[in-house]
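This entry is set out below.
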Amino acid sequence: MRSFHRKALLLALSTTACAAALTAPAQARPQTPEPGTASLNWQPCEPAPAGSGTDRSPVRECATLSVPLDYAAPGGPQADIAVARLRSDRPEARRGTLLLIPGGPGGSGRDRLARKGAELRERTGGAYDVVSLDPRGVGGSSKADCRLTDDDRELTHLRPWPGPGGDITENVARARRVAQACARDGGALLRSMSTANEVRDIDRLRQALGEEKLSAWGVSYGTYVAAVYAQKYPQHTDRWVLDSTGDPDPSRVERGWSANMSSGADDRFPDFARWAADPARDTAHRVAGRVEDVRREFLAVAEKLDANPRGFQDAGHFPLTGNRLRQALQQALYSEGTGEEGTFARVSALIVAARDTTGPLTVPDPLPAGPISQDQAAVLVATLCNDVNWPRSVGSYARDVAADRIRHPLTAGMPVGILPCAFWKGGATEKPTRITAEGPSNILMIQNLRDPSTPHRGALKMREALGDRTRLVTVDAGGHGSYLGNGNACGDREVTDFLTEGTRPDQDKVCAAEPA
């Protein structure tokens, strides 16, 4: 890791002041909403449905925050933002509020709070009220809708997986169709969805909570939201965690994150190959007898499915095409799920069954049986397209796909494929924020070494941009999402100590791999 001492000299005064704040003893802070801020009427949240994987404890509270649809016209139409909190169970230890910022774009913060809030509160000893929000357009907030067809919301269609041989003709038609539908039916709410407005909504939440400062844990796309907030409102940041971070290059932003997924899959795949070639695997899961043959077997089965898709015995699922197999692998690489019921087992069973059996597939389909929801699709597309201008040349996408699928056959050119942004009416709504080293030194980054979605090389770009404002903890692990996500005690301890004690490593640190 390169040195940042020159930046440190420029930031010495702010760093010293921040260090004193980071290590200050916990003390109660008054919570009074700022004048003119909408109030929050907290009520018990509805319990999560059984089997949803969320904490069904009734102690979470929910409320609705009203925010301007357009911050340039604060007295105009408003949007509803669904928020939730899990209050500290140790008031004497409480030092403030910690915001969970979900990934996506389009992830639900309230769902993340339900899944991770109780564990986070326990790890931090009740030092925080833990809060989160559903970004505008999705979940319990004012819902966006482009009125897309089920087919256009199917996961491997919404993502621009090319046709056999790299043909993007169908991708181009779909991208144009989705862009036109969003322009026709999305309305002002869709046009208002952006990272910049999510950051403004977060600061409105801070004001409504009566907090001078927030702490935060942003994951995946949420790290970019967190970084932009820290750039725009540095005076309102307390202890700031970025978990699984992308390159913040303002000329590319989401376009660059997508392109980086090609190399990210290559970084992570060897972990899967070792699992799928392990002699301990049974015949239903062992893809090849040698590690070096697993990639060849996977690519061969995907190509076979390109020509002849397979149906599932369960008629409620989409047929297994080559692209749905590729998407299933990509999602499996996100998790450390190496157990017999984990993500590696599910996708390896799918590969073996598609290769070695005939007739309808009897193994489970790891992908969603139906399309993603209208609001999730709309928020995903709108944020990508409103944040940054994308190339308009169809030919440039065809050339990029052709080159990328040769360099990175696992992802077949999808990460550089054409999206509705190429035809988006009006282009970006604002100029993207440039992340810089100017600001308090109160950020901790944590990153898996073999992340298939936000590869380590992109996190290094964020590390470079932030300079002495941050330290980077690299965990020798695979998968997407590190803190409280992959069982690495060293990485978890660094983040927990930072959130509870305000301590960070003196310099960037690597946490060694730990046995599963």
Observations:
- The chain has 16 helices and ten strands.
